[in-house]
Amino acid sequence: MNKILAVILCLVPWLSLPGQIPYTVGATVSLEHRETDLPVCANGDSTLRLEDFDTAINGGEPKVLWLSFFTSWCVNCQNEIPQMAAFYNQYHQEGLEILSFGRQWNYPYSCEGWAGLGATYPLLNDDTTGVWQWFGLGYVPQNVFLDPTFTVRYSIVGFDPDQTAQILEELLSELNPLSVAGEEESALPQTFHLEGISPNPFNPEARVSFTVYHRRVSLRVRVLDVTGREIGVIPSRVYGPGSHELRWRNGQQSSGLVFFSLESPGERQIQKALLLK
User: Fold this and answer.
1) Angle between helix 161-173 and helix 75-91 axes, rounded to 10 deg
2) Residue 220 in contact with residue 235, Cβ under 8 Å?
3) I want to staple 126 with a disulfide (CB 3.0 to 4.6 A). Which of 97, 99, 103, 177 is the partner?
4) Total-model pTM
5) Where does the chain show beta strands of DSSP type E?
6) Going by C-beta distance under 8 Å and a sequence separation of 6 or more, which residues neighbour residue 262?
7) Strand partners, 202
8) How many angstroms separate the CA atoms of 112 and 149, rounded?
């Protein structure tokens, strides 16, 4: 019974402080927040800052930052640990950094106890800094992915290993610059191009316009809210070269920013639009 209650509680939001505006997908973390001292309680130095990973300031190779948020009593959070450690071991040398922010310690695990469960990446004490409030209402587990410009690319409540693997492959692949910049023949040609979303703002229907180049390709459209949650999909089908237009009609989604992701098996392009209801 206690374990069932703990699983349910993982999905309960903890209200953020008045005046806090969470960073949503597409937003860039401010310099003020990047310069905030963050206390490390296991697997690292005593403090760090997000700006420590800013290669424009410190040099080195660009990084993808995975910010994980958990509480010591969250069973689902605990279940993430083995797979997160595996991802860290697999992708750390390719540019992945994981910062895992824990709070409400000693119910039942301390920070050191959490590390003892197999967390090999840095653990931070978020009881004192409240970084979780920067990115949402406090649902746990929550996983936020930042690119090297500190832009939020994904913000996801819950944990799906397959989805996470796709996200990491996408973001890490962007870290590799063209090895022969200036030689256009060396760059792979685009298969398609997402031309735009219209009207923008829209209500209730949006048109997704795109162009397919050179050859037939299987494409689908996923519609995401600001947390990265899928709220709609136009199923995959094969499109030939030329211009195309698809339509998506909103159902129950309330007003706000939404993201249209046009996807092939090896490529993805995203544009945002404002839904007014």
Assistant:
1) 30
2) yes
3) 103
4) 0.62
5) 38-42, 47-48, 64-71, 96-103, 123-125, 142-146, 152-157, 192-198, 205-212, 217-224, 230-239, 242-249, 256-264, 267-275
6) 192, 194, 208, 210, 219, 220, 221, 268, 269, 270
7) 275
8) 31
The DSSP bridge pattern shows strands 64-71 and 96-103 to be: parallel
Q: Is 165 exposed, middle or buried (0-12, 13-18, 19+ CB in 10 A)?
A: middle
| Helix/strand/coil for 55 | helix
Structure confidence by residue, pLDDT tens digits, 143-184: 999 988 898 999 999 999 888 888 888 888 777 543 223 333
Distances (CA, A) of 146 to 9, 60, 171: 27, 17, 9
Q: Rounded distance, CA 234 to CA 207, Å?
A: 12
Distances 50 to 47, 253, 254 between C-alpha atoms, Å: 10, 33, 33
Query: What integer pLDDT is reported at residue 185 of this predicted model?
Result: 36
Do the beta carbons of residue 212 and residue 192 sit within 8 Å? Answer: yes
